[in-house]
Amino acid sequence: MPAPLKNDLYLRALGRENTERTPVWVMRQAGRYLPEYLETRKRAGDFMTLCSTPELACEVTLQPLDRFNLDAAILFSDILTIPDAMGLGLRFEAGEGPIFDKPVRTRADIESLPVPDPADELRYVTDAVSLIRRELDGRVPLIGFSGSPWTLAVYMVEGRGTKDFSKVKGLMFSEPALMHQLLERTADSVTAYLNAQVEAGAQSLMIFDTWGGVLSPAMYREYSLAYMQRIVDGLKREAEGRRVPVVLFTKNGGAWLDAMADTGCDGLGVDWTTDLAVARQLTEDRVALQGNLDPSTLYATPERIREEVKRVLESYGHGPGHVFNLGHGIHQHVNPDHLGVMVDAVSEFSAR
Amino acid sequence: MPAPLKNDLYLRALGRENTERTPVWVMRQAGRYLPEYLETRKRAGDFMTLCSTPELACEVTLQPLDRFNLDAAILFSDILTIPDAMGLGLRFEAGEGPIFDKPVRTRADIESLPVPDPADELRYVTDAVSLIRRELDGRVPLIGFSGSPWTLAVYMVEGRGTKDFSKVKGLMFSEPALMHQLLERTADSVTAYLNAQVEAGAQSLMIFDTWGGVLSPAMYREYSLAYMQRIVDGLKREAEGRRVPVVLFTKNGGAWLDAMADTGCDGLGVDWTTDLAVARQLTEDRVALQGNLDPSTLYATPERIREEVKRVLESYGHGPGHVFNLGHGIHQHVNPDHLGVMVDAVSEFSAR
Q1: Rounded CA gap, B257 and B276, in Å?
Q2: Residue B352 pLDDT
Q3: Read out DSSP for B230-249?
Q4: How far apart are CA A81 and CA B352, in angstroms?
Q5: With an 8 Å Cβ cutoff, are B301 and A170 in contact?
Q6: What pLDDT is attached to residue A218?
Q7: What is the C-alpha separation between B240 and B203, in angstroms, rounded?
């Protein structure tokens, strides 16, 4: 029997219920800006060992909660665990980001892709979720996550970071049916993976569509949004007698928030290039909104950080449904104390 | 006395006059996808020699016009010639992009930055413009260009390519007055530089704001748009008895087209993430629009390329004021014949 939640602000805000103040968490809150994270990572040896050892993943997941008054924990993992479990050979190279040794390029590559069994190849993830839930002991809810099918496909086809997306878009434009096959299989893998996270104890889910914003509006709907829709339709939306809210986040997707809200998700991530006031107009309070301070703001003075927090809160305006966050992951060279200033300012300025 | 223009479709479209068909040119049309370009570049030895030798810059500027029915030529140069002329030491490293050996970081760095004299350190550019005009002999108009102040500042402060813009945004958030000083000086340099290009024979101008889209709406207005406004206000807008139209292009700036149109520019570049129909609604036919096929479309079959060209033309709809282009520079691995298919399709489908 899991411990009852002591702080459910995050879940209530995603349900667009009234809250005493605006809840706050931060993308990549367990990350390289924290000296204690760097120590654990050093102990782990490499990044994938850190991800795939439940005790270590649990340890770093909890680190930011001990420093800051955050209202949610997010599973420490990588968005590329699924293609790795499909056998593509994920590794990380310094200064290069993720690399797949066996990228997916041909019909044969795509047709032979397995849908990984979350209870088998991805067991280390669900084990981490269970352990984190136990260790959290009801402090705050736990968020599970995955990359979006389009975003996973970008990495799977390109094999490494890219500036012009020529391989994945080449496939999309020259072999659309094959691209759809890849996305379908990936979407089904993500659905099974996220449902397994919920079964293991995730209390909310987030889908990161890092690369949806490089598509045209028509292509975004066809190649990214349609597959997030497929996932939303296949997710368990309730667990432990409570709704498991789902948040979609397309970086640079400000123009498509309206269409994203139509998927039936509970919340949308908004990056800093769209004002929350505009995002709210576009979505007409059908969903909660999560964001959206520019992560670089944390390089500013504490005074300036507080001003910018105020500006973001005022941009959202009155009424329920706002979860404060950065508009993207926190940068590695940020002074952790500055994040503390931000978190405290959110509480102070949003208290009702 | 310069030769009279035989084809002024491009200038007329930017003036929102009726044209027999939609004119077309392509960003980076003189570039690595052309085998004849690669040959000239090999002969030059390195990229900066190619840019700074007027005969070679002229040669590659004209190459795409000999292959395709394009309606404008664009000066072959780099967006970073100004910081190079300021003494920052520009060089290009394979796979790395541009690097400045002496990036700008401190108050002393910024206060000692000169405003380069276009007749001196940048003489190779105006010499190239004069030569190209002579060699064009009135075939099509010549476009001059520069990077936007914000975009130049990104490279000047970061010193090389960046993913999170932490140094330049760090300066912006922690030392706003200093950042404004850098942008002011850069804007004044760009203004003098573009006016010198017009005096040498450029018949239209374009300002590339490659990185404006990484800013929040408020920061975009304050740190990028304000300085493009300053440039627009300071430009010679007529030469040889004819208007010299100015086009602004902020990549990922779809949400700000309305504000951009208010600068008094003649046209706006639109990337493929915004439908031209939406762009036209936002700007209410106050300016011409240039764009916006996803460059990756050129990896598709000729048939599919033709369909997508049609879709872009239909998205703009009836009436004057459209210049067809890609939504960003052409990719280096594109088959040149596919660009030919695109150019011919624009003529065929837009003939009135």
Answers
A1: 11
A2: 85
A3: HHHHHS--EETTEE--EEEE
A4: 53
A5: no
A6: 96
A7: 9
Q: What is the pLDDT of residue B2?
A: 82
Give the tokens for residue B255.
């949400």
Cα–Cα distance, B88 to B20 (Å, whole number)? 46
Q: What is the pLDDT of residue B151?
A: 98
Q: What's the pLDDT score for residue B97?
A: 85
Residue-level pLDDT at A185: 97
**Over 80: is that where the pLDDT of B287 sits?**
yes
Out of A273, A295, A304, closest to residue B213 by CB: A273
Rounded Cα distance between A143 and A293, Å, is 20
What is the model's pLDDT at position B257? 98
- Tell me how far CA of residue B213 lies from CA of A25, A254, B119, B327, in angstroms: 25, 12, 32, 14
| pLDDT attached to residue A2 | 82
- The ipTM, to two decimals, is 0.93
Mutation for A interface: B219, B225, B251, B296, most A CBs within 10 A: B296
The rounded distance, in Å, linking the Cα atoms of A283 and A161 is 32
Contacts of A273 in chain B (CB under 8 A): 213-217, 252, 255
Cβ within 8 Å, pair A169-B255: no
Task: Write out residues in chain A with pLDDT < 70, as ranges.
Answer: none
Q: Cα(A81)–Cα(A84) distance, rounded to whole angstroms?
A: 5
In this structure, are residues A272 and A327 in contact, taking their beta carbons and an 8 Å threshold?
A: yes
Say how many Å lie between the first and final Cα of chain B, rounded.
Answer: 33
Asked if residue A171 lies in contact with residue A179, where contact means CB atoms within 8 angstroms, the answer is yes
Reported as a pLDDT band with limits 50, 70 and 90, residue B17 is very high
- Using CB atoms within 10 A of its CB, is residue A241 exposed (0-12), middle (13-18) or buried (19+)? exposed
B301 touches chain A (CB under 8 A): yes
- Could you read off the pLDDT of B35-56 as tens digits, one per residue? 999 999 999 998 999 999 999 9
Q: Does B295 touch chain A (CB under 8 A)?
A: yes
Residue for token digits 């990984």? A116
- Rounded Cα–Cα distance for residues A228 and A215 (Å): 15
Answer whether B172 touches A (CB < 8 Å): yes
A76, two tokens: 């420490």
Identify whether the C-beta of residue B193 lies closer than 8 Å to the C-beta of residue B148. Answer: no
Mutation target vs B (from A274, A296, A298; most B CBs, 10 A cutoff): A296
| Mean per-residue pLDDT, B128-145 | 98
CA A62/CA A52 separation, integer angstroms = 16
On the 0-12 / 13-18 / 19+ scale of CB atoms within 10 A, A244 is buried
Mean pLDDT of the region B227-244:
97
Question: The domain at A9-350 falls in which architecture?
Answer: Alpha-Beta Barrel (3.20)
A173/B300 CB distance under 8 A:
yes
| pLDDT for residue B163 is more than 90 | no
CA distances in angstroms from B186 to A58, A163, B200, B223, B331, listed in the order given: 49, 27, 21, 12, 29
pLDDT at residue A164, rounded to an integer: 87
* Distance from C-alpha of B250 to C-alpha of B269, rounded to nearest angstrom: 7
DSSP run (H or E) holding A69: none
Average pLDDT over residues B105-117: 95
pLDDT on residue B96: 78
For residue B267, give the nearest of B247, B238, B242 by alpha carbon. B247
* Two structure tokens written together for B111: 């206060």
Please say if the pLDDT value at position B230 is more than 90. yes
Confidence band of B256 (pLDDT split at 50, 70, 90): very high
Segments of A41-100 assigned E as strands: 73-74, 90-93, 97-100
